[in-house]
């Protein structure tokens, strides 16, 4: 069955049938319905490849993950992609997941996807404070949406979770429970959300009259969190509360605390950030801030679809709050920093 046969059946021009099947707005609703009903009754199936070639669309969007950081078991990534693919599936779009050799060697992958017409648009994640990917895509004029801002987020589409107020709230909650020595383990501050968190921690600590220098810039996995926690616990006056820029860092902190004979949420409080799927099932369950990863993926995909449909990038900038999830790792201090240091010294002997 071809468009020619449908046109003859309805006594319409072939171009009218084609435009009706492809959803052009200049075709009346009555004509569109007649064409659609006839096409279905005659068993017509459009060739998506031919249709997309004619209208210059591929019905595919892409996301590039750095190969040296790619972890398909990452709970945040899994939920983010689930949310994005659910929205794209509803709109008849596919998601192409590509990988670059490393976070630094990203450009050849982007150039290949764009020059080879592999995707209609791109989703960027883990944005840097000064992100060369954003500058590159702005120069090329290729459609993209970022999950995360940069230092200068005015000229592109983005969705971000407002991590600064969340970090200030974390400090206030810990101070309100009586903690006066509070440490912060953050992700690398070249990543923009980590920079914003570190700035907010310093501001909140200063406002509470605390030492804002109890900060360790770590990596992005649990081993980094554990190593940073051991460094904080080795201080002459260790913190009685440790705030973490990512849940995965908090998981490492909790492991280090248990290794030192301490109970997270008792002798040392821990607050994470992200509320990844496993946070509620750790022992004890992690107190953290929710980014709602699945909805974040869905919202980002919706914004990219809107961008592809012609919405101006400057109108597609959304900042959403993080929500505190109170579980079992935040409580009033049971030891002073001096008593905590003495206990750690006895445990190590």
UniProtKB/TrEMBL annotation:
<dbReference type="GO" id="GO:0003700">
    <property type="term" value="F:DNA-binding transcription factor activity"/>
</dbReference>
<keyword id="KW-0805">Transcription regulation</keyword>
<dbReference type="GO" id="GO:0000976">
    <property type="term" value="F:transcription cis-regulatory region binding"/>
</dbReference>
<feature type="domain" description="HTH lacI-type">
    <location>
        <begin position="1"/>
        <end position="55"/>
    </location>
</feature>
<keyword id="KW-0804">Transcription</keyword>
<keyword id="KW-0614">Plasmid</keyword>
<dbReference type="Pfam" id="PF13377">
    <property type="entry name" value="Peripla_BP_3"/>
</dbReference>
<dbReference type="InterPro" id="IPR010982">
    <property type="entry name" value="Lambda_DNA-bd_dom_sf"/>
</dbReference>
<dbReference type="InterPro" id="IPR028082">
    <property type="entry name" value="Peripla_BP_I"/>
</dbReference>
<protein>
    <submittedName>
        <fullName>LacI family transcriptional regulator</fullName>
    </submittedName>
</protein>
<dbReference type="Pfam" id="PF00356">
    <property type="entry name" value="LacI"/>
</dbReference>
<dbReference type="InterPro" id="IPR000843">
    <property type="entry name" value="HTH_LacI"/>
</dbReference>
<dbReference type="InterPro" id="IPR046335">
    <property type="entry name" value="LacI/GalR-like_sensor"/>
</dbReference>
<keyword id="KW-0238">DNA-binding</keyword>
